[in-house]
Design goal:
- By secondary structure, this protein is α/β, with parallel strands linked by helices.
- The strands form six sheets. Strands 10-9-7-6-5-4-12-11 form an eight-stranded parallel beta sheet. Strands 13-16-17-18-19-20-21-22 form an eight-stranded parallel beta barrel, surrounded by four helices. A five-stranded mixed beta sheet has the order 23-24-25-26-27, with helices on one face.
- β11 (323-324), α9 (332-347) and β12 (354-355) form a beta-alpha-beta unit.
- α8 (299-316) runs parallel beside α9, α10 (367-382) packs across α17 and α16 (563-576) runs parallel beside α17 (595-610).
- It is globular.
- 52% of the residues are buried.
- Residues 1-27, 31-84 and 749-754 have low confidence and may be disordered.
Length: 754
C-alpha cells in the first residue's frame, strides 16, 4: 500500500479474514461506512439471491472494466497530468486545481479552466409553478449560477417546461437541473427542457423503491443487473448527448444499491464503483458532458470518497469535473461547519469545480456560505497556497486513523491535578483576557461550566484549558480567584513564559516558541511547558523543540503561511522525531472577520487536517467575538470532524419539493427538545427518497412517510409508521427513552455569592 506521497509502505495488508487495525477508531469517526460486518451465515450461502437484514462488506472484486490502463492512454493525455500511484491531487504541498475537461450546462461552463460554480436547490412544490419560478429568481439574485429542482413524477415534469418558459420570458437564463430518483421516464421527459439531469446510481433503476438488502453470490448475478441498468440508462444518455444536456452522476452514501452494498458495503469504494458503472455506460456511447459527486452526511466519509474518486480517475486517465457537497448537513452553524470541513478540505487540495452547501434553511440563504467557500478555493489556487515540496509521511487518504498522542500524566510532585487539561477525544482551549476572568460567573458560563452555589463545575462542553492573552496583575483579586477555581476543577492555564516570569501564576503551563525552545527560560511557577510552532520550522528545529518534553504543542501559523500544507509538513517532522505530543491548532482572526468567516476558515483549514486525524484540539481566537460563541464553534468543529460529541448530532435534509412537512419548523422543534443528548444522532428527513441508508449515521430517524404522517426509525429499521405530525415529536422522545438513550435536562442552580 502507498502513503499519500505515493511511497510504498513496508507493512503487509492484513488477510481479508482478519479485522483491519484500528477498526474501532475508524468506525467511530467514519460511522457505518467502516464498520466490520460478519460474513453471511451458512444458511444463506445458496445459489440465487437471498434477502439480508443488513448489508455486508464482502471482499471487493471489481467488475471487469474495458477501460485501458493508464499507461496505454499516455499518448492522449499530457504527461504532466499523471500522478504517482497513491496520490489523489496534483500536489499535496500546494493548492493547484485538478485539471478537468469543460462541461457545458446551459450558459455555464464548468471545469478547471473556469471559476468554481455555485448552486442551490429549491424547496417549493415543483407543481406550484408560481412559487418555484419565484424561488429560482430569488436564488439567482442571491448569486446561484445553477438551480436544482426536484422532479419526482410526470406532473412535476410537465410543470418544469412551464417553469423554464416563464423564467426565460422574465429574462432569467439560469441553468436548471432536474433531480431524479427512481424515474427514468421522468428523466427522459424533463431532458427536453432542462439543462442538466442529476441521476442517483443507487436508485435510478429501482422504480419500485424496494430498498432491499440482497446478497449477490456470483459474478453472473452481479453483472446481470449491470446489464439491466444499461438498458434503462442508455436512452437517457443518448437523449442528453443529442440535445447537449449535461448530467451529474451523483452517488449518495446513504442510498447505495443492494448490489453495491452486497459487494462493497456502504463504503467510499462502493460509492466510487457505483458511479463508475454509470460513467462506463456514458463513455460507451461517447457521451462525456457529465460530472461526478460523492455525497455523505459524514464529512470524513465524504472527503475520503471524493479523494478515492479522484485517485481512481487519475489511474484511468479520466478528467471529469467534481460537484462537492456534504448532504443533510443541517442548519445554522452546525450545517455550515460540516460543509466547511468537507468542501473546504477538498478545495484546498485543488479538488472541486462546483459546490452546494446543503442547509435546512431557505434555499437562497445557502448562497452566503457557498460564496465564502468558493472564495476560499479561488484564493488558495490563485495565490498558490503551499510550502516547499517535502515527502509527506504518516497520512494515508485511503485509510483513516487518528494520529496517536499522549495525554498529560500526573507527576509525584504536582500540586494540582493536570491530567484533565486535555481531553482524549479532542480538546478545546479558550483565549481569555483579565476582564473575562474578573467577571467570574458570566465568565464561567461562557467557558461552558455549570454553577453550583457560585462555584464552577466542569460540564460536557467546558473548555479544557484557557490561554491567558495577558496575565492579570497579582492585585486583580477576582481574576486570580477565577484562575484558582478553574485549576481546582482541572482546567489548564496556559500563558507565555516571559509573561509568567513577570507575573507568576502557580501551576501554569509556560508557552515557549519552538525556535529557541531548548534555551528558553521557564519560570519556577510553571508546572509544565508547551511549545508553539509557526509552521516555518525545519526538521531539526522541530526535533530540538520537542526535546523539552512539552505537554502539548500549538500550531499558530505565521502570517502568509498556508496552515494546511505547513501543518502536514510539521506532522511529518513530528513523526520523524518520534514524538507523540498532543497538537492543538491555534487559529487567529481579526476584527474584519465576521462569524461566517470564523466557521468557514476554521472548518476548511483546521477541519481539513482533523479529517485526516492530524490534530488533538483547537483554539479559535478573535479579538471581539463572544467567548461563548468561540467555544461553541470549537466544539462544533471537533464534532463535525467526528472527534468529540458534546451535543446531539442532527442529520437533517435541506428540504425540496418532495418534503412532506415544514422541515425547518420541525427540525427546530426537535432540536429544542432533544439538543441535550451528546452521543445521540437523530435524522430528520422530509421524505425517504434515498432509502433507509440515509439513516446510516443516525441512531433515530424522523421521516416524512405521507402528507401529515411521520415514520420513526431506529437505525435503518422503521419501527412506527403513519404517526400524526402533531404527536410525532413526543413519540420520537418516547422512542429514545425506550432505548435507554434519554437523560433529563439538568437545571443549573442559581448562582449565589461564595
Amino acid at each position: 500500500r502507498a502513503d499519500c506521497s505515493g511511497h510504498a509502505r513496508a507493512s503487509t495488508p492484513p488477510p481479508r479474514s482478519s479485522p483491519r487495525p484500528r477498526v474501532r477508531e475508524m468506525a467511530a469517526a467514519l460511522g457505518s461506512a467502516h464498520q466490520l460486518r460478519a460474513a453471511a451465515p451458512p444458511a444463506l450461502r445458496k445459489r440465487g439471491k437471498k434477502t439480508l437484514k443488513a448489508s455486508r462488506a464482502l471482499p471487493v472484486v471489481r467488475a471487469a472494466s474495458t477501460e485501458p490502463k493508464i499507461e496505454s492512454v499516455a499518448a492522449a493525455v499530457p504527461s504532466d497530468a499523471f500522478l504517482p500511484d497513491g496520490l489523489y491531487c496534483v500536489d499535496n504541498t500546494q493548492t493547484i486545481r485538478r485539471k478537468t475537461r469543460t462541461v457545458n450546462i446551459g450558459k455555464v461552463k464548468m471545469g478547471s479552466d473556469h471559476p468554481i460554480v455555485r448552486q442551490t436547490m429549491t424547496t417549493s412544490d415543483t407543481r406550484d409553478v408560481e412559487a418555484t419560478v419565484a424561488e429560482v429568481k430569488k436564488c439567482a439574485d442571491a448569486g446561484a449560477e445553477m438551480v436544482r429542482i426536484t422532479v419526482q413524477g410526470m406532473q412535476e415534469a410537465k410543470a418544469c417546461a412551464e417553469i423554464k418558459k416563464r423564467l426565460v420570458e422574465d429574462g432569467y437564463d439560469t441553468p436548471l437541473i432536474a433531480d431524479i430518483h427512481f424515474a427514468p421516464k421522468v428523466a427522459m421527459m424533463v431532458a427536453e427542457c432542462f439543462d442538466k439531469i442529476r441521476v442517483n446510481p443507487g436508485n435510478f433503476a429501482d422504480g419500485r423503491k424496494k430498498f432491499e438488502d440482497i446478497l449477490y453470490e456470483t459474478d453472473e448475478e452481479y453483472n446481470a443487473e449491470i446489464e439491466e441498468i444499461e438498458k434503462i440508462f442508455t436512452p437517457l444518455v443518448l437523449k442528453c448527448k443529442e440535445r447537449g444536456v449535461a448530467m451529474r452522476i451523483g452517488t449518495n452514501h446513504g442510498s447505495l444499491s443492494a448490489r453495491t452494498l452486497s459487494r462493497y458495503g456502504d463504503t467510499p469504494a462502493g460509492m466510487v464503483e457505483s458511479a463508475f458503472e454509470f460513467a462506463r455506460i456514458c463513455r460507451k456511447h461517447d457521451y462525456h458532458n457529465f460530472v461526478f459527486s460523492m455525497k455523505a452526511s459524514n464529512p470524513l466519509v465524504m472527503v475520503q470518497a471524493y479523494r478515492l474518486l479522484a485517485h481512481e480517475m487519475y489511474k484511468l486517465g479520466w478528467d471529469y469535473p467534481l460537484h462537492l457537497g456534504v448532504t443533510e448537513a443541517g442548519e445554522g452553524e452546525d450545517g455550515r461547519m460540516k460543509s466547511s470541513i468537507g468542501i473546504g478540505a477538498l478545495l484546498l487540495d485543488g479538488l472541486g469545480d462546483t459546490i452546494r452547501v446543503s442547509l435546512t434553511e431557505a434555499s437562497h440563504l445557502e448562497m452566503e456560505p457557498c460564496t465564502r467557500l468558493r472564495d476560499v478555493g479561488h484564493k488558495a489556487a490563485e495565490e498558490k497556497w503551499g510550502v516547499e515540496k517535502f515527502e509527506e509521511k504518516g497520512r494515508d487518504f485511503k485509510d483513516f486513523a487518528r494520529r496517536a498522542s499522549d495525554l498529560p500524566v500526573q507527576k509525584e510532585d504536582d500540586v494540582i491535578d493536570l491530567r484533565n487539561i486535555l481531553h482524549r477525544d479532542g480538546s478545546v482551549l479558550s483565549a481569555v483576557t483579565p476582564a473575562h476572568l474578573a467577571s467570574e460567573d458570566p465568565f464561567y458560563r461562557d467557558l461552558g461550566a455549570k454553577l453550583a452555589v457560585g462555584m464552577p463545575l466542569r460540564d460536557v462542553a467546558t473548555s479544557d484549558s484557557i490561554l491567558l492573552t495577558e496575565v492579570p496583575e497579582p492585585s486583580d483579586e477576582k481574576a486570580m480567584r477565577s484562575i484558582r477555581r478553574l485549576q481546582e476543577i482541572g482546567v489548564g492555564v496556559v500563558a507565555d513564559a516571559a509573561a509568567l516570569a513577570e507575573r507568576p501564576v502557580d501551576n501554569a503551563v509556560a508557552l515557549v516558541a519552538a525556535k529557541g525552545a531548548a534555551s528558553a527560560a521557564v519560570p519556577d511557577c510553571a508546572a509544565r511547558v508547551a511549545v508553539v510552532f509557526d509552521g516555518t520550522e525545519t526538521e531539526d528545529e522541530v526535533k530540538v523543540a520537542l526535546g523539552v518534553d512539552p505537554v502539548m504543542a500549538l500550531i499558530k501559523c505565521a502570517p502568509g503561511v498556508s496552515r494546511l500544507h505547513a501543518s502536514r509538513r510539521l506532522f511529518t517532522n513530528i513523526l520523524a522525531a518520534g514524538s507523540s505530543v498532543p497538537v492543538i491548532h491555534h487559529i487567529q482572526f481579526t476584527d474584519a472577520d465576521v462569524k461566517d468567516d470564523i466557521v468557514i476558515q476554521s472548518g476548511s483549514q483546521v477541519g481539513g487536517l482533523l479529517c485526516d486525524g492530524l490534530g488533538d484540539g483547537v483554539l479559535i481566537e478573535h479579538p471581539t467575538a463572544e467567548l461563548d460563541y468561540l467555544r461553541r464553534t470549537s466544539f462544533g468543529l471537533l464534532q463535525g470532524s467526528r472527534m468529540r460529541n458534546t451535543k446531539t448530532e442532527y442529520v437533517s435534509c435541506p428540504s425540496c419539493g418532495r418534503t412532506l412537512f415544514d422541515l425547518q419548523e420541525v427540525t427546530a422543534a426537535i432540536s429544542e427538545r432533544t439538543g441535550h443528548l451528546p452521543g445521540v444522532a437523530i435524522a430528520v428527513m422530509g421524505c425517504i427518497v434515498n432509502g433507509p441508508g440515509e439513516m446510516a449515521d443516525a441512531d433515530f430517524g424522523y421521516v416524512g412517510g405521507a402528507p401529515g404522517k411521520i415514520d420513526l426509525y431506529v437505525g435503518k429499521e422503521v419501527v412506527k409508521r403513519g404517526i400524526d405530525n402533531d404527536t410525532a415529536c413526543d413519540e420520537l422522545i418516547q422512542l429514545i427513552k425506550d432505548h435507554g438513550r434519554w437523560v433529563d435536562k439538568e437545571e443549573e442552580e442559581e448562582a449565589v455569592a461564595a
